Amino acid sequence: TEVTEKLEEVVMIWIKQIRQILVESEQIRREADDVGPSAELEYWKTRMSSFNSLLDEIKSTRVKKIISILQAARSKTLKQWKELDGNITIAANEAKDNVRYLYALDKFFGPLAKASPVTMMEHVPSLMYTVCMIYCTSPYYNTSERMTSLLLKITNQMINTCKMYLCEG
């Protein structure tokens, strides 16, 4: 029982740390008003990397051994652990899925940033079609908050490109 208690203490520390990571990941992001759509892709790539690292750690043999010892001891901390493990898996899947969908838009980010307004407009119909497809097919990206944020960043990039075009001309 002494070993079990020590292991439960360790797992409770992990649970507290993981909860903190999950809470921080759900907080509203603070971004500059003129940030473009590539920032959205970078955000989700970073988040995917973080949650995948956390998943790798949770699936490590060291952690699995501790969890199996606590399972044998019928520890009550395992209920919280399993819930958090599921939440991390969901967050990692969401980030991975969002990165995959945003990569479909990545080919438009260059023309949005470097083209003249006239050339940029040639890309808008296919860009909007791709955004529409993401909205219709993504299990995570199909909320009004996510779409509003993405469309705002796309608009910001178009405005910045037009400003640069006007200042150069």
TrEMBL record:
GO terms for biological process: microtubule-based movement. The gene is Dnah5_1. This is DYH5 protein. Pfam families: DHC_N1. GO terms for molecular function: dynein intermediate chain binding; dynein light intermediate chain binding. GO terms for cellular component: axonemal dynein complex. Residues 5-167 form the Dynein heavy chain tail domain. PANTHER family: CYTOPLASMIC DYNEIN 1 HEAVY CHAIN 1, MALE FERTILITY FACTOR KL5. It comes from Chordeiles acutipennis (Lesser nighthawk). InterPro entries: DHC, Dynein_heavy_tail.
